[in-house]
UniProtKB/TrEMBL annotation:
It is a multi-pass membrane protein. Pfam families: YhhN. Keywords: Membrane, Transmembrane, Transmembrane helix. GO terms for cellular component: membrane. Belongs to the TMEM86 family. This is Uncharacterized membrane protein YhhN.
Amino acid sequence: MLKNHLGFNFYFALLFIVQLFTESDTLTDLFLFPQIHYFTKPLIAFSLFALLVYHTNLKGRFSKRIAAGLLFGLAGDIFLMFEDCFMYGLLSFLLGHIMYISAFFLDYKINTSINKDHAKNAVLGFGFFIILFCGGLWPYLGEMKIPVIIYAIAISAMGIMAFKRFGRVNSLSYKLIAVGAILFVLSDAFLAINRFAYSFKLSGWIIMATYMAAQYLITFGTMERRIKNKIEET
């Protein structure tokens, strides 16, 4: 996987580092220039979208839906750079997760009867996350209670559907997207905690690192996707 995309991976690693630097005013002043994040942050989802289009030509519904999710992520990244556009950013990422859910469902419906225990474990795990996440943030959410609950359900559903691909696609694609989904959930959880409850040190680095890794893994999991048992693209 890495060998086949050396040029892009070098570029994305550089973008990854630069974006993390922008989360520190000190590092930005030393090595970069002010406001560079307005340029680098949108490049995260856009570059992955461009790679996906180049690699797949958006053949098949799965690739198209992941591409749409990346575009909604791009819109969300832009909106979240402006404090008064937070709700628009939240809505954009919500729509992005819905696109990811619909893509992962394509693999799940190939054979809904296999690996039911695996699917149940995913539901229990992410169900516990919703309870813990919403319960912990509830006193701090104010008028944002309903939007945050809806969003928490959406990201958990995205994680569940990522795990429900088990046994239906090749191992590499499954693992890349499953880990990407977990990192996406963690990134959103850290973002919510930092915004609504407790602003902690290095929060920006943790949020961005997990987010960039999540989008990268989901994109590459899409490019590496192969249906098991010679079942054609759905």
